[in-house]
From TrEMBL:
Pfam families the record matches: ELFV_dehydrog (PF00208), ELFV_dehydrog_N (PF02812)
Protein name: Glutamate dehydrogenase
Source superkingdom: Bacteria
InterPro entries in the cross-refs: Aminoacid_DH-like_N_sf (IPR046346), Glu/Leu/Phe/Val/Trp_DH (IPR006095), Glu/Leu/Phe/Val/Trp_DH_C (IPR006096), Glu/Leu/Phe/Val/Trp_DH_dimer (IPR006097), Glu_DH (IPR014362), Glu_Leu_Phe_Val_DH (IPR050724), NAD(P)-bd_dom_sf (IPR036291), NAD_bind_Glu_DH (IPR033922)
Organism classification: Bacteria, Pseudomonadati, Pseudomonadota, Alphaproteobacteria, Rhodospirillales
Similarity field: Belongs to the Glu/Leu/Phe/Val dehydrogenases family.
Subunit details: Homohexamer.
A molecular function (GO) term: glutamate dehydrogenase (NADP+) activity
Keyword terms, alphabetized: Oxidoreductase
Glutamate/phenylalanine/leucine/valine/L-tryptophan dehydrogenase C-terminal domain ranges (all copies): 206-447
Length: 449
């Protein structure tokens, strides 16, 4: 692991000690602290008043019981979480994840990342994250609704337009946000549109929110390639996952003239040399909620399903991990390099292990970290909040144009910051420093709170 500044090493040791066993959280903090040595060397005042220690400690952590009744009449118990990490820039903002792997360490890593990501958007939003170890797979609509209602029966007292504004993440899409919003409305007797984002269009959602994270990641990768006088045009691409982020990354890659050859889910991956048929993926995943193996069965021809294994074995020029944390390892990175990868963009949060990131950087392959590259989702959520506050509804084109402009700005700010701090082309360092400086400036202005 690369060395970090002595003072920051002590802060990291304290974080590890006080948050024992929360490995993903340690990993996320370490990555940011590795970048901050250069900032405090240049501007020591950012380390005053235990600012960095405070930034690593969530402002509030809520853990609660979520009881619900399944279709057989059995009472089930899950655990709910909301970590309100940092509100120096605005109300806490960040998604809810429903997945059996969720625990407090995962939610803390996501909330920590979210704080810097939201800062990078330039919008007035703080960082938070939440979720549950509930597994939505194989559950009926009725079970999903009862679970969401029970989850909101506790969460409602902690959220609000000016307090904390959740959205979706893994396992939480338009259907779940609808059930959560319905229960919030019922409990509070208020139609408070600004309390959740990712809403359906008919009750206050924003056009292009569904597409925003995947589109945004692709805009970022395109900007990265353009800065090297290249583009996605004609490139073979592989995207992992086949959920919200993956589907709309694939859609935008195609719009930029790239060809997506493979995508996956947690059981396996499909390869289709003719180019992934997106309408079929949408029907399987968004409408029927089936496994990606269905794709090969329905498509026939040369489409191939590989059970298990790694989607990163499929040769490509551009790789976009868009499933989950630590899904792309050092070994996968070496395979990608051997197969000629020229750019990597993280659609998911922290999908590349530290070893994978180092491998790409040492090979001089432009690498876009999730906290910058996937910020288009939360940025468009902030646009949804703007529309709700002004009781307005923008067109798709208007909203996507704002998204494209925001992504270009984030790209440029990461590139310029990396340059300013003596590490040109290092988007990880650029994103961490640019995000940190904005949060730190606000925290200093607000005093020790
Ligand atoms: P989603 O719609 O639920 O899709 C998740 C996809 O990843 C599914 O294909 C899922 O496969 C796969 N996956 C999940 N856990 C996995 C695991 N342990 N191993 C292998 N594959 C796994 O979720 P999403 O909204 O697209 O989110 C994907 C990533 O993007 C997450 O890291 C999320 O935090 C990040 N992100 C999302 C947004 C957003 O706006 N939605 C914004 C920023 C970042 P199965 O169906 O088999 O589980």
């Amino acid at each position: 692991m690369p060395p970090i500044d002595e003072k920051l090493e002590a802060i990291l040791a304290d974080v590890v000690h006080r948050n024992a066993g929360e490995e993903e959280f340690h990993q996320a903090v370490r990555e940011v602290l590795e970048s901050l040595g250069r900032v405090i060397a240049k501007h020591p005042h950012y380390a005053d008043q235990a600012l960095i220690e405070r930034i690593c400690e969530p402002e509030r952590q809520i853990i609660f019981r979520v009881p619900w009744v399944d279709d057989r009449g059995l009472v089930r118990i899950n655990r709910g979480f909301r970590v309100q990490f940092n509100s120096a820039l605005g109300p806490y903002k960040g998604g809810l994840r429903f997945h059996p792997s969720v625990n407090v360490g995962i939610i803390k890593f996501l909330g920590f990342e979210q704080t810097f990501k939201n800062a990078l958007t330039g919008m007035p939003i703080g960082g938070g994250k939440g979720g549950s170890d509930f597994d939505p797979r194989g559950r009926s609509d009725g079970e999903i609704m009862r679970f969401c209602q029970s989850f909101m029966t506790e969460l409602w007292r902690h959220v609000g337009e000016y307090t904390d504004v959740p959205a979706g993440d893994i396992g939480v899409g338009g259907r779940e946000i609808g059930y959560l919003f319905g229960q919030h409305k019922r409990l509070t007797n208020r139609f408070e549109a600004g309390v959740l984002t990712g809403k359906g269009l008919v009750y206050g959602g924003s056009r292009a929110r569904r597409e925003a994270t995947g589109y945004g990641t692709t805009y970022f990768v395109q900007s990265m390639l353009e800065s090297r006088s290249d583009s996605l045009e004609g490139k073979r691409c592989v995207v992992s996952g086949s959920g919200n982020v993956a589907i709309y990354a694939m859609e935008k890659i195609r719009a930029f003239g790239g060809k997506v050859i493979a995508c996956s889910d947690s059981n396996g991956y499909v390869v289709d040399e003719a180019g992934i048929d997106l309408d079929l993926v949408k029907e399987i995943k968004e409408v029927r909620r089936q496994r990606i193996s269905e794709y090969a069965r329905r498509k026939g021809g040369d489409a191939l399903y590989v059970e298990g294994g790694s989607v990163w074995d499929v040769p490509c020029a551009v790789a976009m991990p868009a499933a989950t944390q630590n899904e792309l390892t050092g070994k996968d990175a070496r395979t990608l390099l051997k197969n000629g990868v020229i750019a990597v963009g993280e659609g998911a949060n922290m999908p590349c292990t530290p070893e994978a990131i180092r491998t790409f950087q040492e090979a001089n392959v432009p690498f876009a970290p999730g906290k910058a590259a996937n910020a288009g989702g939360v940025a468009t959520s902030a646009l949804e909040m703007q529309q709700n506050a002004s009781r307005d509804s923008w067109t798709f084109g208007q909203t996507e144009a704002r998204l494209a402009e925001i992504m270009r700005r984030i790209h440029d700010s990461c590139a310029e910051t990396a340059e300013e701090y003596g590490a040109p082309g290092n988007y990880v360092l650029g994103a961490n420093i640019a995000g940190f400086v904005r949060v730190a400036e606000s925290m200093q202005a607000l005093g020790v709170v």
